Amino acid sequence: MQVPGALRVVEANAIAYRRVWKGSAFSSFVTPALFLVAMGLGLGSLVDRGTGPPGFEDFSYLAFLAPGLLVASAMQSGAAEGSFPVITGMKWIRSYHGVVASPVGTRGLVGGHFIWTGIRVLMVSVIFGGVAAALGAISPMSALALAPIGILIGMATVAPMTAFTANRENTEALTAVFRFGITPMYLFSGTFFPVTQLPDWLRSVATVTPLWHAVELARRVALGSGSALPAWQHVGYLVLVFVVGVALTYRFFTRRLNV
Questions:
Q1: Given 16, 142, 169, 240, which residue has the most CB atoms within 10 angstroms?
Q2: Which stretches of the chain are assigned E, i.e. beta strand?
């Protein structure tokens, strides 16, 4: 990674974001917070009348939901950064071609893209964690501790998503990924209920998704709950997905932009 070049890309993204941040505030911050209130307090009041999710009987549904929803929101932010902004720069306005033709180069472009995504996901994770702490779902220290996990799942999502987008000519495939990949993973990877409540075949699918590993790790940190795997295996899996995604992104960017 060419650090000076990558920082130039981050600077350009920050300047652009300063002008459009209001447009993304609702989807990035307000919607997840409202969803936490509606599901955690609204639906949670009904869930808490029962025994609670299996293995989490001692916790309110709000406390159960908050860590999973935080990392799920981080995942969605990573997916968003790796999809339409990439095809915009690659095909529609072709700004990536100009960056690659400059001293920044392909390495700087790729590095800056992922650094900026990390910053965006950190913002989402910290703000969401602050809302969760204000609602009493998690402690302030847990909210801070969850931010690195949010970054981890965000990067494990944006890297393969960026690699996939780099080879696309239109948005139809991206829409399909969100509809049949991101949304099901959001719903069935343990965010709203333990995957042990899924059918065996679907449980096996859920446990290989990056989000499941992040959710398990987040609840271990926030609630001190156990997990099917040691923490290092969850972290290692997410890092591996990120590294492979970065390698593929660089390869595909090089092949498409350096022509």
A1: 142
A2: none
Q: Nearest CA to 186 among 164, 209, 169, 166?
A: 209
Q: Quick one: tokens of 91?
A: 């095909």
- The predicted model gives 52-64 an average pLDDT of 75
- Tell me the whole-structure pTM to 2 decimals: 0.90
Take residue 19 and report the two structure tokens written for it. 């002008």
Determine which helix (DSSP H) or strand (DSSP E) holds 75, and give its type and residue range.
helix 61-81
Are 67 and 219 in contact, with CB atoms under 8 Å apart?
yes
Closest CA to 11 of 23, 166, 3, 100: 3
Q: Could you report the per-residue pLDDT of 99-132, keeping only the tens digit for each?
A: 999 999 999 999 999 999 999 999 999 989 998 8
Amino acid at 57: E
Tokens, residue 201: 């075949």
- What is the rounded distance in angstroms from the CA atom of residue 82 to the CA atom of residue 202? 26
Q: What is the DSSP string of 90-109?
A: IIIS-HHHHHHHSTTHHHHH
